[in-house]
Write a structure and sequence with these properties.
Layout lengths: L11 H5 L5 E7 L3 H15 L4 E7 L6 H11 L3 E5 L6 H9 L6 E4 L10 H10 L5 E5 L13 H18 L11 E4 H7 L10 H8 L6 E5 L16 H14 L5 H27 L4 H24 L8 H31 L4 H24 L4
Parallel strand pairs: 1-2, 1-4, 2-3, 5-7
Antiparallel strand pairs: 4-6, 5-6
């Protein structure tokens, strides 16, 4: 008689484990010290099984991805996606949506500002059909931001919420929230239409859905950051406006090209300011002043494009910035030559002066954008 096989100690917990139900996506940038305590808090809220954590790390300099792998060696509920050359909360969330088999997915910060205990009620609301999306809100009745201690950000969020409601047509107290939960199938169905720009993925989801999503708010006590680096910076207001533009006009003129063109227009003002400063105040001749103004405007455009247009691919190391700047100068010089050559040819063939100039500017702008995207921010 063959003896009955007895489960060993390692397989016993697996036999009683709940099947995977919820994936929690944590977009990270320099959050090494926050990970282990947050996984403990999530386990305290959800129990020992039925969930997984997807840490999507933007190649943090503090070794966040290595810490995530260290945790994952002994905890199979933790997985890590380390991204090279890509940045931004929205695109990180999108990669998380597509990387899990869990039927429900949540996005939350790894800095302990979001309370994982809310996940229980948020999941129950979506599972029951009470809501298509459950949102942890900083502005719902009963919510608090006292611990955050940032009244400036609170006012900014309030104004942003008003604009976002007009765009999405969805009434909720905090469409700019970074803590929400929805069915994975819904998220993946919307992915092809998402812009992936910036930091407000919930706004993108709500604005992309052809049918309004039913949303339920859950009041949140928004806490102070535990440690690490905030994923928000001084460009957050412009980043939000870029998101609004993308959902409104992005199919007509790509958002990144629109930002690149806007920087170019600002650069014209910088060029003129430098030119006249050298002509009127410095007494320099025109050719030398024009050369300095051109070089100064190109350098300014590189800085602003690196800060805003390509903030998800921002060059940050001294080597990257130097070679990126040098490549940008070369790219713009080629674009300037193309601008002049095309405009001159069209003008010589009888096209009106203004029309020829505008065509030349358009050709030069597209050329500069293409070269910069490929050889400056696409390479370094």
């Amino acid at each position: 008689m063959t003896p009955q096989t007895q489960p060993d100690a390692a397989s016993a917990p697996l036999a009683s484990a709940r099947p995977l139900e919820l994936a929690i996506i944590l977009p990270t940038l320099n959050e090494r010290d926050n990970l282990a305590p947050l996984v403990e808090r999530i386990e305290g809220a959800l129990g020992t099984s039925g969930w997984e954590v997807l840490i999507v790390d933007d190649n943090s300099s503090d070794g966040t991805s290595d810490e995530a792998r260290r945790i994952a060696l002994t905890d199979p509920r933790v997985r890590v996606i380390q991204r090279i050359g890509r940045r931004g909360l929205s695109s990180a969330a999108i990669e998380g949506f597509c990387a899990t088999a869990a039927p429900y997915v949540a996005v939350m910060d790894a800095d302990h500002q979001h309370d994982p205990r809310l996940l229980v009620d948020m999941l129950a609301a979506v599972k029951s059909g009470e809501a298509d999306v459950a949102v942890a809100s900083r502005f719902a009745e009963g919510a608090s931001m006292e611990e955050w201690g940032r009244p400036d950000r609170e006012k900014l969020s309030s104004v942003a919420n008003m604009l976002a409601r007009k765009l999405t047509g969805v009434e909720l107290s905090d469409p700019m929230s970074g803590f929400f939960l929805l069915p994975s199938a819904t998220a993946r169905a919307l992915v092809p239409g998402l812009s992936g720009i910036g930091f407000k993925i919930l706004l993108d989801l709500l604005a992309t859905s052809e049918t309004p999503l039913k949303v339920k708010d859950f009041p949140m006590n928004f806490s102070a950051r535990r440690s690490g680096e905030s994923k928000l910076d001084r460009a957050i207001a412009l980043d939000f406006l870029a998101g609004l533009y993308d959902k409104s006009f992005g199919r007509v003129i790509p958002t990144r090209f629109a930002l690149f063109g806007t920087v170019g227009v600002i650069g014209i003002g910088v060029h003129m300011a430098i030119l006249y400063a050298f002509l009127l105040l410095g007494g320099a001749d025109f050719s030398w002043s024009q050369a300095v103004a051109t070089f100064g405007a190109m350098s300014f455009n590189f800085w602003l494009n690196n800060f805003l247009t390509y903030r998800d691919k921002r060059l940050s190391t001294p080597k990257g910035i130097f070679w990126g700047w040098a490549s940008f100068i070369v790219a713009c010089s080629i674009g300037a030559f193309a601008n002049v050559a095309v405009a001159t040819t069209l003008h010589d063939r009888g096209l009106h002066t203004m029309a020829a100039a505008l065509v030349g500017i358009g050709i030069g702008s597209v050329w500069n954008y293409a070269l910069s995207s490929r050889f400056v921010w696409g390479r370094y």
